[in-house]
Amino acid sequence: MMSLHNIVASTKMGGSQRHCKSKRTGVKFNVTTNKQFTDTNTVVLFSQCGITDVSPLCDYKRNFTNVNNHIDIAEAGDGVYNSLWQLSLALIFKLLITIFTFGIKVPAGIFIPSMAFGAIMGRMIGIAVEQLAYQYPTLWVFQGACNTGENCVTPGLYAMVGAAACLGGVTRMTVSLVVIMFELTGSVRYIEPLMAAVMASKWVGDALGKEGIYDAHIHLNGYPFLDNKEEFAHTTLAADVMQPRRGEGPLCCVTQDSMTVEELECLLKTTDHNGFPVIVSTESQYLVGFVLRKDLSLGLANARKCQDGVVGSSRALFTSQAPITVTDQTPMETVIDMFRKLGLRQTLVTHNGKILGIITKKDVLRHIKLLANEDPESVLFN
């Protein structure tokens, strides 16, 4: 007779004896373009032009002397206008590349590119507002701040606010995003415009769609995900959601000590379940444990290879694995809370110790769709 410990042990031994050699290959893409703002740190766009700055973004027609070293609003030079053109090209390039790289299996992301989008657009808008304040200083929007003798328009601040707004609209981050931007600046002075931009971007994003980019990508890929922010306040019970329902066919189970290896292999071939409850016998239906499909299949395969005397009539003895169980009268609100906090993939439904059914995370998601008057079959899983 072969025990579950032997099956699992043979699986581990088989895995440790297999040595795979892999070769890393890489593909390098070279893009022929002006890399002035495509490979530059985004923080450069946040900086304020100083007296010694020679960057094209700081090419203003100023006349600094030993007496006059105050940075006032000045007319933009050729370097600034050339930088605006390069920023426009960099924005288009980054946007197109990010669209392709975010959805494919490469080490890329959306966090830094979103900040880059917002920083580029914010810097361009800041330069435009700065030149508008220089050309038309008597406009009512500039009279309050620009008449105090201070630099009333800072393009770097516009870039910072734009980066926060763009990232907030994409990810729906709020307080944490303001803290991140505060760490970049280290100044409490800019918290108010950052908070206003982040909240405005979140409101606009929520008006267009309730999901952020990561939530939408989870649903697009068909991952069974239970959102902690969604509340469930219905009175349904575990017996209303479990599979199989009452009156339907029996649940596919394996017995503790009465199934042969051939019967287990036949069960794996004829079903596609992720795991099987282990019961004492088909007559008693008392729950003993739960075995995953992958552990069972790998254990049986390695047991045939590594152990002598394993034939189709050999018996397999399973030990208890103490699975998470609920009773058939458990409210679904409690069951969903267990799925969220314990990270369960499935839970078994019992009554007086006897197995009745099983509830998977996919069953929970379909039930939530059904209660929301939506088609439960519209939930696609990968």
From TrEMBL:
The main location is membrane
Family indicated by similarity = Belongs to the chloride channel (TC 2.A.49) family.
Q: Which SMART domains match?
A: CBS (SM00116)
Q: Where is the CBS domain?
A: 318-377
Protein name listed in UniProt: Chloride channel protein
Q: Which InterPro entries match?
A: CBS_dom (IPR000644), CBS_dom_sf (IPR046342), Cl-channel_core (IPR014743), ClC (IPR001807)
Q: Where in the cell is it found?
A: Endosome membrane; Membrane
- Give membrane topology per the record: Multi-pass membrane protein
Give the residue spans that cross the bilayer: 84-104
Give an example GO molecular function: voltage-gated chloride channel activity
Q: Which UniProt keywords apply?
A: CBS domain, Chloride, Ion transport, Membrane, Transmembrane, Transmembrane helix, Transport
The protein's superkingdom reads Eukaryota
GO CC terms on record?
early endosome; endosome membrane; Golgi apparatus; plasma membrane; synaptic vesicle
Please indicate if the UniProt record lists Transport as a keyword.
yes
Q: Name one Pfam family in it.
A: Voltage_CLC
Q: Which CDD domains does this chain map to?
A: CBS_pair_voltage-gated_CLC_euk_bac
Q: Which PROSITE patterns match?
A: CBS (PS51371)
